[in-house]
């Protein structure tokens, strides 16, 4: 059973992740792009080959997506949210200055207005089933802190740094090993688990919590939620915190692999799904999956939390709710934030990785790496 589940999950869900601890270490600890700017040496989630381009002949998909997503003139070049040109991005065509400025305003309006608007953070019933308010935690819940190097926990929490789930950068451990980690920490698949945590050296935000949520749902964990806040938010609200984590008795965690949360290469190339590129606009401009819509992961955040549903309706208005959606970033870590928001809003969404797309474009990258990692069947 364990071997079978391990093989299935490795084949279904385990390639599109990143050990952000290893990534941040390799990046010198700087991963904060919270202002929307782009620094190629400062990315938690983007370890794939973003310089290779897969544009179909005769089609500039970056320009095409800018027209669809941002209402931009197709000749507008990619700039980051600070207005600084990215030297490696697609060069803009010549357009009148006023027209270019107007197009740029459209592109940056979403992140700029997040702090200007009083966003309605009231959550629907569907949203509350996934994203739990601070006052919604009860004694039956197991609080799971997945932060990196956390020294402040909500009192009673157990602690598993999210890096523990990874075999190596970009590859999660097999299902039976992940299940063993959860079981050793005192979690069974039947428990109600509330996940919270941040990668502070990488700029914060809920990506590690939403990714672990996605991982657990892929293991068949039904009663999993993400906490709508951090340990610091909990303390600010008057909740008790502790410098040490809880230690629970060991349990048996039996995974039941569910492939409905993960996209495959064949599905992505089928033309039957809407594809969201949740990386930064400059990365999108350098190369993307043909037909993708540029929707940076920060579009669904306000002050590093999942934004209100009124706002999400605006962000997702370009999508057809009756058609499946695939979200990707280079490894899927930050893409999980957009995937989570889509699921919360009732979309049929799946998570994918640009890393897998690239591997399927370059057969030499699909060879087994000697550790049971990247291979032809892994996704």
Which helices and strands appear, and what pairs or packs with what?
Blueprint: H1 2-12, H2 20-26, H3 61-70, H4 97-113, H5 125-130, E1 131-132, E2 141-145, E3 153-154, E4 158-159, E5 166-168, E6 171-172, H6 175-184, E7 192-196, H7 207-218, E8 224-227, H8 231-236, E9 241-242, H9 265-269, E10 274-277, H10 281-286, E11 293-294, E12 301-302, E13 305-306, H11 309-315, E14 325-329, H12 335-344, E15 349-353, H13 354-361
Parallel strand pairs: 1-8, 2-4, 2-7, 7-8, 10-11, 10-14, 14-15
Antiparallel strand pairs: 3-9, 5-6, 12-13
Helix pairs in contact: 7-12
Supply the CATH architecture of the largest domain.
3-Layer(aba) Sandwich
Helix content: 25-40%
What's the number of extended β-strand segments? 15
CATH class of the largest domain: Alpha Beta
Describe the protein's architecture and organization.
It holds the Pfam family Rhodanese. InterPro entries: Rhodanese-like_dom, Rhodanese-like_dom_sf, Thiosulfate_sulfurtransferase. Keywords: Repeat. This is Rhodanese domain-containing protein. By secondary structure, this protein is an alpha/beta fold. The protein has 2 domains: 145 residues, Rhodanese-like domain (Oxidized Rhodanese, domain 1), CATH 3.40.250; 172 residues, Rhodanese-like domain (Oxidized Rhodanese, domain 1), CATH 3.40.250.10. Strands 1-8-7-2-4 form a 5-stranded parallel beta sheet. The protein has a 4-stranded parallel beta sheet with strand order 11-10-14-15. α7 packs across α12. The longest helix has 17 residues. The chain is globular and about 50 Å long. The chain starts with a helix and ends in an 18-residue tail after the last helix. The N terminus and C terminus are likely disordered.
């Amino acid at each position: 059973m364990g071997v079978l589940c391990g093989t299935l999950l490795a084949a279904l869900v385990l390639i599109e992740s990143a050990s952000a601890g290893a990534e941040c270490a390799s990046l010198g600890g700087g991963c904060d792009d919270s202002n929307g700017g782009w620094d190629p040496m400062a990315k938690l989630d983007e370890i794939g080959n973003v310089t290779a381009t897969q544009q179909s002949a005769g089609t500039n998909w970056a320009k095409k997506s800018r027209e669809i997503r941002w209402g931009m003139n197709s000749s507008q070049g990619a700039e980051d949210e600070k207005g600084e040109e990215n030297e490696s991005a697609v060069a803009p065509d010549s357009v009148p200055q006023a027209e270019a400025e107007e197009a740029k305003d459209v592109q940056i309006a979403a992140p700029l207005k997040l702090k200007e608007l009083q966003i309605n953070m009231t959550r629907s019933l569907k949203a509350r089933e996934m994203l739990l308010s601070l006052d919604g935690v009860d004694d039956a819940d197991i609080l799971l802190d997945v932060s990196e190097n956390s020294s402040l926990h909500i009192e009673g929490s157990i602690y598993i740094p999210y890096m523990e789930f990874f075999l190596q950068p970009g590859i999660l451990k097999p299902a039976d090993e992940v299940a063993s980690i959860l079981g050793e920490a005192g979690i069974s698949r039947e428990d109600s688990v509330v996940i919270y945590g941040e990668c502070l050296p990488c700029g914060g935000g809920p990506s590690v919590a939403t990714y672990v949520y996605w991982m657990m749902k892929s293991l068949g964990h039904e009663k999993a939620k993400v906490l709508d806040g951090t340990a610091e938010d909990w303390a600010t609200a008057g909740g008790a915190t502790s410098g040490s984590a809880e230690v629970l008795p060991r349990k048996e965690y039996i995974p039941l692999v569910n492939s409905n949360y993960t996209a495959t290469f064949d599905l992505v190339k089928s033309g039957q799904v809407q594809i969201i590129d949740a990386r930064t606009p400059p990365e999108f401009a350098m190369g993307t999956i043909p037909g993708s819509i540029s929707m940076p992961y920060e579009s669904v955040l306000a002050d590093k939390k999942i934004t209100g549903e009124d706002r999400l309706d605006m962000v997702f208005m370009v999508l057809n709710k009756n058609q499946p959606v695939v979200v990707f970033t280079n490894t899927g870590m930050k893409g999980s934030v957009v995937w989570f928001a889509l699921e919360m809003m009732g979309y049929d969404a799946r998570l994918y990785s640009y890393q897998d797309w690239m591997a399927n474009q370059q057969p030499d990258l699909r060879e087994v790496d000697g550790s049971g990692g990247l291979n032809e069947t892994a996704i």
